[in-house]
Structure formats: C-alpha cells, structure tokens
Design goal:
Blueprint: H1 13-46, H2 50-96, H3 98-111, H4 116-140, H5 150-173, H6 180-202, H7 207-236
C-alpha cells in the first residue's frame, strides 16, 4: 500500500489544509477592506482633510490587524493545547492498554466499510508502523505532523488584514478631494466582488449569493458610516 494513500490519512489533507489557509487569508483581507473602508468613508463624510483621513485609516489598519492577529493567536493556541492534550491521553492509553486500542482501531475501520479481516490487518500494520499517528488521524481527526503554529496563524491574519486595509486607505488619500469617496466606494466594491468570488470558490459554495452578500454588506457599511460622518460633521460645524 502506498504511504500517501493508507487509510489513516485524511483524504486530500495537505491540499485541504492549503485551501483552508488560502480561504482564511481571503476572508481576513475581506475584513480589512470592509472595516477600513467603513472607517475612512465615515471620516470623509465629516472632513476633507487628507491628513485626518490618513491618520484615521492608519489607526484603523493597525488596530484591526493587531486585533485579528491576537484573536487568531489565542484561538489557535487553545486549539493546539486541546490537540496536544488529546494526543497525550491517546499515547498513555496505547502504552497501558495496547490490545484494547488495537481493537478500537479495528472497529473504526470496520465502521468505514472494511471487512473484519481487512480492518484487523490494516489496524495491525498501521499500529506497527506508528500507532499514535494512526489513532490520532482515524480516531481523533488530528494529524500530529500538522498541528497549527499559533504564531504562523497570527502573522497570516495580520498580513491578510493589512493587505486588505491598504486598498481603501490608498483609495481615500490619493485622489483629489472631490473624488475620494466615489473612487474608494468603486475600488472597495470591486475588491469585495473579487474576494466574495474567490472565497466562494475555495469554500465550494454558490458564487452569486456569496458575492451579493459581500458587496451589499460592504456597501451598506460604507453608506451607514458615511451618513454618520456627514451628520457628525454637520453637528460639529
């Protein structure tokens, strides 16, 4: 049996993992686009000062990216701790009751459709090769070699949010004053259309509803914050 195709492997694990990371990156960039666009468009409704817009945009970018990074770090750290604890329990059980664990692994393969004889043979071969990895993958759904590093996840979220946030930030400060809001709105809606499409394809979801939700949600956020900025600007005038 080929090493890359033994029953203990999760189908397409490596490819699936990469696609999940890519999809998470797209969603992180999408968050950066929407939150920063809402902020700078709202500020633009209250003032036309390029310095103020740049300051607000940079503050939103840093706050959002650091918040995303810290949240991802905490979340992935908790997941990693849970996975390590489960692996420790499994390793102890393998050391203390190997026969029972072999029978359990055999039963799991039988539940997947293998005959008792074949299930027993597969379980014995995988146990002889690497018992912990076999049980982790089949019983726990964990790949001991692919436990996520929380620092990697944090940096990925930070970079994804930052890349997304740069678009509305540049779109609001670079054009002439009279074109800032229209250019930003157009750029953001186009970007949201793209991220909605890519996110749907990576998640194997229907494209049209995903794109529509993305574009309408971002458009609504900018409309609400711009109106709030206009009202606040008028009240402070």
């Amino acid at each position: 049996m080929d090493e890359s195709e033994h029953p203990g492997d999760r189908p397409g694990g490596s490819l699936s993992s990469r696609l999940n990371w890519l999809r998470a990156g797209v969603l992180g960039a999408n968050d950066g686009i929407v939150s920063t666009a809402g902020l700078v468009v709202g500020v633009a409704g209250a003032t036309s000062s390029a310095d103020t817009l740049l300051t607000a945009g940079l503050a939103g970018l840093l706050a959002g990216s650091l918040s995303m990074a810290s949240g991802e770090y905490v979340s992935v750290s908790a997941q990693r701790d849970s996975e390590r604890a489960a692996l420790a329990v499994e390793q102890r059980e393998l050391a203390e009751q190997p026969d029972e664990e072999l029978a359990e692994l055999t039963g799991l393969f039988e539940e997947r459709g293998l005959t008792p004889e074949v299930a027993r043979e597969v379980a014995e071969q995988l146990t002889a090769r690497d018992a912990l990895t076999a049980h982790a993958r089949v019983e726990l759904g964990i790949d001991p070699e692919q436990i996520v590093n929380p620092w990697h996840a944090a940096w990925a979220s930070f970079l994804a949010f930052t890349v997304g946030a740069l678009l509305p930030l540049l779109a609001i400060v670079l054009p002439p004053a009279g074109l800032r809001v229209p250019v930003t709105v157009a750029a953001v809606l186009c970007a949201l259309l793209l991220t909605g499409y890519v996110g749907a394809r990576l998640g194997e979801a229907p494209v049209r509803p995903s794109v529509a939700r993305n574009v309408l949600g971002g458009g609504l956020a900018m409309a609400v914050t711009y109106l709030a900025g206009v009202l606040l600007g008028a009240a402070g005038a």
